[in-house]
Amino acid sequence: ERQLELNARAVESEITKYTYLPSLLELEGNVSRLLLAPTAYRRHHVNMYLQGLNERSGSLAIYVLDPDGRVIATSNWDEADSYLGEDLSFRAYYQDAIKGRPGRFYGIGSTTGEPGYYLAHGLRDGNRIIGVAVVKVRLDALEERWQRALLEAYVSDENGIIILASDPMVRLKAVRPLNDETKERLARSLQYHWAALEELQLFNRSPLDNGIEQVSFATAGVPANYLLQTRRLEDTPWHLTLLSPLQEQRSAAMSHGTLAAVAAALLAFLLIAWNERRKVIATRLAAREALQAANDELERKITERTADLQASNERLQAEVRERKQAETTLRQAQDELVQAGKLAVIGQMSTSIAHELNQPLAALRTLSGNAVRFLQRGALDVASSNLQNIAELVDRMGKITGSLRAFARRTGDSGEASLQQAVDAAVLLLHPRLQRTSMKIHRDYLHPEQDDVRLAVEQIRLEQILVNLISNALDAMRDQVDRQLWLSGSADNDGYRLEVRDNGPGIAPETRVRLFEPFFTTKPGEQGLGLGLTLSASLAAAAGGSLTVRHPEEGGTAFILSLPYPREPNA
Question: Which top-level group of life is the source organism from (predicted)?
């Protein structure tokens, strides 16, 4: 019984150690994107990922089925017997997984003819299942261990077919008679390929207890008597059967009985000798002394443990104080870095701003001189028109300097921002560069029924992020004639996603991994400090969002700004 229990635990451990693998594919974003929008580029990336995962896990194959049960990506994509494109919707593990149940199935592959244990898991996108991940593993290591241990055992599945056995001759035989209907059903399912599924011949079966029988069975052509024990395996409809030779069991029982008798006699002799020599008073005194010693030792350990706990508590409090101080210092450094980034942006725009202000100043000088002459001549209507133009130019200069003042001032982490206002402010700050480069901006971030989008970020910080992203797009497209910039947005349950995409040459693959590193820049000379994307990502994270990048297949670069919506005030 102990041997049966130990081997059952070994089989259960072997068939459950791979159960986590199918659900692991839900963590790989490329798999979900392939199922939602299949392309050859995504299929190649998923194939390479599955191939590496299969090599590291030691499984036979890992593949992904679409909702119709067809293989769209597999670890053996480059092999002659690849599963790619194969329709496996008839398999029971697919039918269970597509309904949200764990798929567990042992069978022989219809393509390779190789036996294996299939584990399937439904891949979800939100509340719907968009595909099925399947892992095929081998269980023949159990058979090898049984053979090395000279153990006679086999495992039968829910159909009563032996799928694992220490003796290869009994594999794929039935442990109970199968009627014609069952044989036809199993043949159609191809679960056991084209095996004949003959019945295992056991003779002289005598039941002894629940799951225990005495049987005769021919091993290597020689009949012998066995004790047959059967036990159901946990979390599976399979059964483990252990065949123990009765002759060996009888010899072992005789040996154990003899040893037990000798041990009992020796123990009785020792107990009598010890009892004769024992003294009642000495025993009581010894017990009292032992109890006192144990009490003293316990008090000493309690004192030492209390002192250790107090010291640990003090060290923990000191670490907490140091952590709070470090967080405060880090926040201050981050605020200073954000402010430095703003000033750096203003410094880079200084030439354009000076040019933008010089034009109104020159016009002011000309209009004011003309106004004096017209007043002297008595042409009041012309002088009034000149003064009106002067007032409009002053208002224009005030807007420019006001935007710079608002952009440069220090702000906090919290607040609520208007997306429309932030885009307008960023375009106004970059107006000189936009005019000089003649870049066309496509705005598609508002729904036709929306006037604005409110986001949970401070207004100036949202403007700074947009200035950095649009300025980077201008720099990327400086050497081309056709300059296009798209501002597009979409809403979901978690927040709002704004994508800023240009039609520039894109980012070289060797520099993509360093985009968000501080002081890393691809701009020539001293045109950049390498802080723009770092600060923008930091500002987005501080507001509870993120800044990521994607590289469209059609070219250019797209930065995706994700920000949450403002929290509704408590009622």
Answer: Bacteria
Answer yes or no: are the C-beta atoms of 478 and 439 closer than 8 Å: no
Question: Which amino acid appears at position 86 of this protein?
Answer: E
- Cα distances from 133 to residues 19, 130, 163, in angstroms, run 11, 10, 23
* Distance of alpha carbon 405 from alpha carbon 387, whole angstroms: 27
Quick check: 551 and 499 in contact, CB under 8 A? no
- CA 440, chain centre distance (Å): 39
- What residues contact residue 15 under an 8 Å CB cut-off, 6+ apart? 117, 139, 233, 236, 238
The one-digit pLDDT tens for each residue of the chain (571 residues) are 888 888 889 888 887 888 888 988 988 899 999 999 999 999 999 999 999 999 998 888 999 999 999 999 999 999 888 889 999 888 888 999 999 998 888 877 766 677 888 899 999 988 899 999 999 988 878 888 888 888 888 888 888 888 888 888 878 788 888 888 887 887 777 777 767 778 777 777 888 888 888 888 766 566 788 888 888 888 788 888 888 887 777 777 788 898 999 999 999 899 998 888 888 888 888 888 888 998 898 988 899 888 889 888 989 998 898 888 888 787 777 666 666 655 655 555 555 555 556 556 666 767 677 778 778 877 778 778 767 777 766 765 665 565 555 555 545 556 789 999 989 888 888 887 888 888 899 998 887 777 889 999 988 888 889 988 998 888 888 888 889 999 999 988 889 999 999 999 988 888 888 888 877 777 765 555 667 788 888 888 888 899 999 999 888 999 999 999 988 765 4
CB 212 within 8 A of CB 229: yes
Angle between helices 532-542 and 459-476 (to 10 degrees): 150
Residue 216 host element (H or E): strand 212-219
Helices (H), 190-279: 246-277
HEC readout, 68-130: CCEEEEECCCCCCCCCCCCECCCCHHHHHHCCCCCEEEEEECCCCCCEEEEEEEEEEECCEEE
Nearest to 565 by CA among 418, 380, 362, 406: 418
Residue environment code for 461-483, b if the CB has 16+ CB neighbours within 10 A, otherwise e? bbbbbbbbbbbbbbbbbeeeeeb
Strands 484-491 and 440-444: parallel
Report yes or no on whether pTM surpasses 0.90: no
User: Who's near 394: CB < 8 A, 6+ residues apart?
Assistant: 360, 364
